[in-house]
Amino acid sequence: MKHLLGLKFRIAITASLITVLLSISSFGQVPFAGELLVSGNNVTVNGEQAANGRTILVPSTITTGPGSYATLNFGNAGRIQLAPNTTFSVDGNAAGLRGSLPMGSVTIVSATNPVTITTLSGHSVAARAGDVVLSDMTATTGTSGGGSTTKSGVNPLVYVLVAGAAAGVLVGVAGGSGGSSGGGGPVSPIV
Known about the structure:
about 35% strand, 6-stranded antiparallel β-sheet, alpha+beta, 2 helices, 7-stranded mixed β-sheet, 13 strands, elongated, 2 domains
């Protein structure tokens, strides 16, 4: 009987220690952080004036005023640029970023995974690198190219293709006017 009480006591102590260790390990987690790059004098983080290079802990709310831009750099998780007159609340972790956009616009500069952004109207947008999301977007349409439709209803990929074609034409014109006896054939853009 005495041996059985000793065993129960050891089990109770072991269970208590495991509970304590698990609770301590959750308190010791390092919050997900990024760097804020500022252009202009009117950028705040959680209501405090922000300087270039400041560390941002998630969740945070970043606001840009007139003539000011902010870029949130979360390394491999992604980079998000805020246009002037924008309020953006960012959250997430290394696996993916998300946020809410009640005012202004953001551009996804880079992202490993789509960035889920909730607009003013409550719609969620899965934005990828190169996408511009406006706070007053009411609907989006995914495309096989990975972009989402902007407020104007035109996929940003269309702009990239048009710009690439224009660059190809310029290269072709410049290459053909130098008096060389090259092939003289059409030049297509490198995409």
